[in-house]
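Severity: low
Component: inverse-folding endpoint
Summary: output formatting inconsistent between runs
Steps to reproduce: submit the following structure tokens with default settings.
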């Protein structure tokens, strides 16, 4: 007889806490958010960390431009076995319903294509400038992006390494809270036009150690025909200076036109990643 497969997400543990967690989530600042420690069972998380690919192990999307410097992977069929199965679980109907109850947003939709999500990895010196995410799916025209889930896989993280997820107020005046990228901690937060977040300071992880995470995004069906989709809105922090603010704005405009082309021609991030990857290798 085949052994019973280990449950990938401890539903009973989290579902019985939903009333309190949902209340906490919706009352958090600067926008609805929560950090959930010990998100998965230790046996599962240890295996996820062990099989997470290094930068040179597979082909990655190179998200490398003025506003960010990180690696990503969205092709589910190329994921390691357990990572792929956990991603599938996070996209399952039961988990998506759990996310709806946690956030108070009914009718959330999972995205099996992992547009912009999947495996993320940032090498020493990498960063992600402050931004509000793109608001509509690039290839599903009626899908309105509503919630982010990020599961961190960084063992032994120290504050001196940097890389905390910063959540800023809606006027981009100050950081309100930081979520450390500690192994087995999940960050969940609403995403809208002014939910500014990022890790804008270059990470100082030890050489050969990377900032690793799994990212999934959830959507609802947009029924307002007059709703105007917005591309990723990068913002400068107070005190960054006129030159930096200008370069952030110019790069934001370039990302916007890239998003337009993605929607128009059905491009994937793999295409841009290969081009940026070639430039990155030439610089080394």
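Observed output (run 2 of 3):
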């Amino acid at each position: 007889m085949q052994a019973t497969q280990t449950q990938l997400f401890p539903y009973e543990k989290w579902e019985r806490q939903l009333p309190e967690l949902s209340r906490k989530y919706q009352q958090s600042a600067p926008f609805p958010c929560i950090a959930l420690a010990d998100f998965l069972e230790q046996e599962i998380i240890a295996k996820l960390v062990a099989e997470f690919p290094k930068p040179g192990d597979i082909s990655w999307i190179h998200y490398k431009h003025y506003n960010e410097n990180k690696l990503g992977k969205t092709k589910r069929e190329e994921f390691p076995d357990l990572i792929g199965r956990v991603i599938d679980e996070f996209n399952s109907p039961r988990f998506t319903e759990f996310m709806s109850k946690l956030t108070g947003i009914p009718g959330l939709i999972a995205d099996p294509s992992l547009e912009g999500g999947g495996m993320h990895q940032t090498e020493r010196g990498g960063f992600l400038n402050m931004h509000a995410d793109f608001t509509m799916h690039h290839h599903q025209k009626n899908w309105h992006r509503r919630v982010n889930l990020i599961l961190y896989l960084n063992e032994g993280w120290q504050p001196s390494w940097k890389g905390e997820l910063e959540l800023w107020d809606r006027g981009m005046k100050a950081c309100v809270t930081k979520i450390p990228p500690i192994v087995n901690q999940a960050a969940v937060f609403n995403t809208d036009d002014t939910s500014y977040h990022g890790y804008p300071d270059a990470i100082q992880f030890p050489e050969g150690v990377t900032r690793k995470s799994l990212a999934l995004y959830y959507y609802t069906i947009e029924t307002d025909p007059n709703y105007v989709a917005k591309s990723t809105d990068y913002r400068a922090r107070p005190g960054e200076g006129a030159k930096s603010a200008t370069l952030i704005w110019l790069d934001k405009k370039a990302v916007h036109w890239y998003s337009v082309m993605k929607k128009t021609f059905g491009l994937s991030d793999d295409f841009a990643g290969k081009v940026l990857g070639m430039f990155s290798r030439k610089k080394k």
